[in-house]
Amino acid sequence: MGNAIKTVGIIGAGQMGSGIAHVCAVAGYDVRLHDISEDRIKDGLATINGNMARQVSSGKMEDKERESALSRIHAAPAVADLASLDLVIEAATEDETVKRKIFANLCPILNPEAILATNTSSLSITRLASSTDRPERFIGIHFMNPVPIMKLVELVRGIATEDVTFEASRNFVGSLDKTVTVAEDFPAFIVNRILLPMINEAIYTLYEGVGSVEAIDTAMRLGANHPMGPLQLADFIGLDTCLSIMQVLYDGLADSKYRPCPLLVKYVEAGWLGQKTGRGFYDYRGETPVPTR
Ligand SMILES: CC(=O)CC(=O)SCCNC(=O)CCNC(=O)[C@H](O)C(C)(C)COP(=O)(O)OP(=O)(O)OC[C@H]1O[C@@H](n2cnc3c(N)ncnc32)[C@H](O)[C@@H]1OP(=O)(O)O
Ligand SMILES: NC(=O)C1=CN([C@@H]2O[C@H](COP(=O)(O)OP(=O)(O)OC[C@H]3O[C@@H](n4cnc5c(N)ncnc54)[C@H](OP(=O)(O)O)[C@@H]3O)[C@@H](O)[C@H]2O)C=CC1
């Protein structure tokens, strides 16, 4: 593994937390997966199981590798189960209050030497760090979705992050066979500073009736060679997460060009959060996704 980190805790067993647990276990780390309830942890483990099985059937992984990787992932129903780990990565809902509460519960019991990282898509690393007992050992390690496939990880230092924390994190990401890009601590960093306004603009394009869901996604898939149309990608990321990121950009940069589209707000208010809730710009409840507009 090439660095001092041997054990990794992950908080949040959703699509990102389960993906991070997956790649850490494949790379040989001992992983503890925590979420708000045992059911959520079970769902996360089932997702990992399914994704690894897919990798086996497509010849990307040996069945033995899958078995041994799975054996390295343990459910951690209590925060106390993370106490002795070397690195804890928070990958819970994109909401500053939720993340602050998690750190407040975790820090008093966490190994004082442990590095604490957040997978936040947009929030200030410096501000999150200042709510912990270890701003010098706090860092943004921002994975991309789907984690087992995407090669990039953004590393974001807070104002107090020490070099030793940064280097250990860089080595850790390298050991997962991912490429690091360094971003400064500004709202939404690099990828989402560019990607999310594009997605928000696609939603305005829909809102203003310039095109249907299908027309907009087809236009960007075939006209700009994007692997997914922007509305399909928004559903994939999660519309709640997209809205939170736009809100952070809007509040943090105080520029009206980041105003979240009211249609995005409406979908989130309806609980239509995309693939994870079965409905967003597409309805996923049937055999094939059907546009909702
Ligand atoms: C919001 C943030 O903070 C930052 C972000 O992450 S922004 C989002 C960034 N991600 C993107 O932009 C993704 C854009 N989409 C893509 O790249 C592709 O559509 C995709 C890789 C997701 C799927 O690719 P595809 O060619 O359409 O589908 P498919 O052939 O089924 O899948 C390709 C591989 O991805 C895997 N895959 C697809 N969806 C997956 C998922 N949800 N989880 C894990 N693996 C997945 C498949 O198993 C397959 O793996 P193998 O090659 O090992 O078999
Ligand atoms: N989706 C994406 O494409 C990307 C997201 N991210 C970031 O990763 C993080 C997670 O996103 P994602 O996985 O998509 O979100 P999901 O909604 O899929 O998962 C979040 C998980 O965190 C759980 N959770 C909520 N509160 C707590 C808590 N107090 N303690 C422990 N677990 C909790 C949620 O449980 P419940 O559902 O019960 O509330 C849920 O299982 C966010 O910060 C997001 O911005 C980063 C890169 C890409």
Automatic annotation (TrEMBL):
The keyword Oxidoreductase applies. NAD(+) binds at residues 12-17, 35, 94, 99, 121, 145, 276. Residues 7-185 form the 3-hydroxyacyl-CoA dehydrogenase NAD binding domain. Residues 189-284 form the 3-hydroxyacyl-CoA dehydrogenase C-terminal domain. The record marks 142 as: Important for catalytic activity. The keyword RNA-binding does not apply. Gene3D superfamilies: N-(1-d-carboxylethyl)-l-norvaline Dehydrogenase, domain 2, NAD(P)-binding Rossmann-like Domain. One of its GO terms (molecular function) is NAD+ binding. It is an enzyme of class 1 (oxidoreductase). One of its GO terms (biological process) is fatty acid metabolic process. Keywords: NAD, Oxidoreductase. Its EC number is 1.1.1.157. Belongs to the 3-hydroxyacyl-CoA dehydrogenase family. This is 3-hydroxybutyryl-CoA dehydrogenase. It comes from Flavimaribacter sediminis.
